[in-house]
Amino acid sequence: MIVEADGGSRGNPGPAGYGAVVRDADTGEVLVERAEGIGVTTNNVAEYRGLVAGLRAAAELGANTVDVRMDSKLVVEQMSGRWKIRHAALQPLALQARQLARGFDRIRYEWIPRERNTHADRLANEAMDAQAGITRGKAERPVRWTGATGTPTRMLLLRHGQTSLSVERRYSGRGDRPLTEVGVRQAKAAALRLAGMSGVDADTPIVSSPLDRARTTAEAVAAATGGAVVTHDGLLETDFGAWEGLTFAEAAERDPELHASWVADSSIPAPGGESFDAVHHRVRRVRDELIAAHGGTTLIVVSHVTPIKSLLRMGLDAGPALLFRLHLDLASLSIVEFYPDGNASVRLVNDTSHLA
Length: 356
What we know:
Layout: E1 2-9, E2 14-23, E3 30-41, H1 43-60, E4 65-70, H2 73-79, H3 91-101, E5 106-111, H4 118-132, E6 153-159, H5 164-167, H6 181-195, E7 206-208, H7 212-225, E8 229-231, H8 248-254, H9 256-264, H10 276-294, E9 298-303, H11 305-316, H12 322-325, E10 333-338, E11 344-351
Parallel strand pairs: 1-4, 4-5, 6-9, 7-8, 7-9
Antiparallel strand pairs: 1-2, 2-3, 6-10, 10-11
């Protein structure tokens, strides 16, 4: 991943703020932004605060390798070990940055000219503006941490119903198992729940994973709402590779070291499969596509455990640990809203009241 960071102070020392951006190294896609007004301090302190925020965000996203790009020659040279850190106020911040850096397999620091660091610079200035109570014109982008504004894109997230593999608690990724009789009943119950919700009608988009268990669940929803189902490959479940069809215990016995590492690290793929980080990145692209196509409306997304958790993780701005700590039942409903100013709100998680 790429971390771009900047900080500034109006007075040096004076009212200060920082901005940080984490990008996908392959696509340049913005994965997360960080910005904060930090009171009265110096430019150098603000720049280090931006670096720390960017590294922390990259760690939360599960990065293995990081390229840091900053227009601060001082920070780049000091973090590269070529310059000594003499100022007492910078030493604890540099220590924080180094501790975060130890969590990556590789980290590289690069100085770039200011004109190539405009995104992080803008975030830092927006943070300083907000701290000072300055409101810019409507054409300018709103400061992200002042509160959600605009009409959100409301995603009703439905997990598919029961299959034979889910009954036995086996890894079920790309295997195309149909719903059981119980699963069909669960899908119909969830469909009735959705059909009665505010904002849902025949025009509400229904977007589903193409796998049979999700598509059949989505078709039950379409029958109840009068809508139509569109499938999207980006909503597929994780590819569990050689562990497909195995229980947790069987996979751990087959590949004890790899399985233990996989459970602890979202960047590690299953043998012959994909990592949770890879799933997160493709689901983020799906989310962006859906917002571009249906921004400001309600849509129904029918998918699997990992893609739904990924969307909730984006809504919560949480790290990959959420994947291992959040439980989603079969045919459960969750709701997340994404606002046009970049904010988000998770409204509901793992509701199964319609199955009672």
